[in-house]
Design goal:
Elements: H1 8-18, H2 31-55, H3 57-61, H4 65-91, H5 96-102, H6 137-158, H7 164-192, H8 197-212, H9 222-228, H10 236-254
């Protein structure tokens, strides 16, 4: 498929945004901008909501009372994040509650070691890592360590979003995601220094390609559009490289090995 050709009006919009144009609640949004914005908001909403549902069972199953409290706070944070995005989507005329009621956002793949690449398995907008079940405490910790870190890097770009209501909402969300990954960092060190290290490595091998796929295909072009519209600052490759370097350094300190990731070997979207 050839790259989309933009109109003169759309190219002018890119230039205006590059020169500092912002949009606020209630403003009429250019069609291309509004469509791209809603795509990103729906993806974030369904991911936050599905993430909260996936974490919730670990309130009961966490290893200590203190950890049960922490997991409960993380679940609360993720559901609050979904609520923040819900209000933004509602302000753009979207019917979020009908979507929640008819969509299986709590669904998880029954296959513990499944690898679906970039595929979509349900009629929702979540990042597809949220299709996988969190079956062990080590999975929960790796989700904090990997996915919350990846989300933090991606949300960091939104702190200067051209859509002001999203920029404002992300500020609190970003801070809470940083707290979540700090929880993962702490526990990675604990588990890597225990008799659980080998099992942690096994689970890391499973989760690593899943989280790498979150950044999308390097051949994808939609991210360039988001950058042109001021909805992101960096392309996926730049964010991914920063993320990988950080995780690599931390794994080396913990005595863990990151498996090789080969994008071309991942199943592709149908």
């Amino acid at each position: 498929m050839s790259a989309r050709q933009y109109t003169e009006e759309e190219i002018k919009l890119f230039d205006e945004i590059r020169n500092g144009r912002k949009f606020d609640a209630g403003e009429e949004l250019p069609p291309l901008y509004k469509k791209a914005l809603k795509n990103l908001l729906w993806m974030q909403h369904d991911s936050e909501y599905s993430g909260a549902l996936g974490y919730a069972p670990w309130i009961e199953k966490a290893p200590t009372m203190q950890e049960k409290v922490i997991v409960a706070q993380i679940v609360k944070d993720e559901m609050r994040h979904a609520s923040v995005i819900y209000k933004l989507l509602e302000g753009l005329g979207e019917d979020v509650m009908s979507h929640i009621e008819k969509t299986e956002l709590g669904w998880k793949s029954p296959e513990d070691k499944a690898q679906i690449g970039f595929q979509r398995l349900k009629d929702d907008y979540r990042v597809n890592i949220f299709y996988y079940g969190i079956n062990f405490w080590e999975d929960f910790i790796l989700f904090n360590f990997l996915m919350d870190r990846a989300a933090g890097h991606q949300l960091e770009d939104t702190l200067d979003s051209s859509y002001l209501p999203w920029k404002k909402g992300i500020e609190g969300i970003y801070k809470e995601e940083i707290m979540h990954l700090a929880h993962g960092d702490k526990w990675i060190k604990i588990l890597a220094a225990s008799e659980k290290k080998d099992f942690l490595q096994e689970r890391l091998n499973i989760w690593w390609p899943r989280v790498m796929n979150v950044f999308g295909s390097t051949s994808g072009r939609s991210n360039d559009l988001y950058v042109n519209l001021g909805l992101k600052k960096r392309n996926n490759q730049m964010v991914r490289d920063t993320f990988v370097k950080e995780v690599q350094d931390m794994c080396e300190q913990a005595g863990l090995v990151l498996p090789e990731y080969k994008e071309e070997e991942q199943p592709t979207r149908q």
